[in-house]
Amino acid sequence: MKKQIALLFMSLFCFTACTQQTTTNDIPKAEEQNINKNIEYTSEQKENEQQIENTEQNVITNEDVTYHKSFGSYRIPKNWIESTKYSTEDKFFYVAEGTEEDPLPNNISVNVGKNKYSSEQHMKFRDAILNQLVMQLPKDVILNGNGSYTANDYVLYTFTFSITEGDTTLSATQYYIVADYKYVMVYETAFTDNTEEVDVVAKSIVDTFKWSE
Description:
Blueprint: H1 2-11, E1 59-60, E2 64-68, E3 72-77, E4 80-82, E5 91-96, E6 107-114, H2 122-136, E7 144-149, E8 155-165, E9 168-179, E10 182-190, H3 196-208, E11 210-211
Antiparallel strand pairs: 1-2, 2-3, 3-11, 4-5, 5-6, 6-10, 7-8, 8-9, 9-10
């Protein structure tokens, strides 16, 4: 059961690469939506670790670490670390210190993606992501979405859902920070009932994120 949940958790990271090919349908512009659709998904976890992006410019303070990537920067509390076990050259995973070897640790990933929409067309981008989530998620899953802004005034779309299989529940929140023809996805995944800590860390990443000049 836990292996199946973990595979779904990994596969959902992959779907945003297809955003440019998505056909946008007319979807209500409501701030919150509950949707039930069917899913077919497959997943294959990479066996070999890829080289992690150089982060020599990271700034460490008593409370947090500022990570500088090629696409932007963001802050994370000091008791959370970048996982070399799960991170790749273009996707960066963060876990609470001491949970790196847990089979299903609460975690947050950060990655940048491209799309065909300008920042002024952010609602079309939202619809494309929504369409893909509808196709990806199991039919009995309730998907909630809303739109807002980050602390740095970037357009932000947030989608939440949870999946239960056996005695394991995956609670997920996907944050999309939108810019011209690109986006950053902050993906929060929790496998425990208490999601307060991972919620706070994910929101810290979102609200401190700044695009590179």
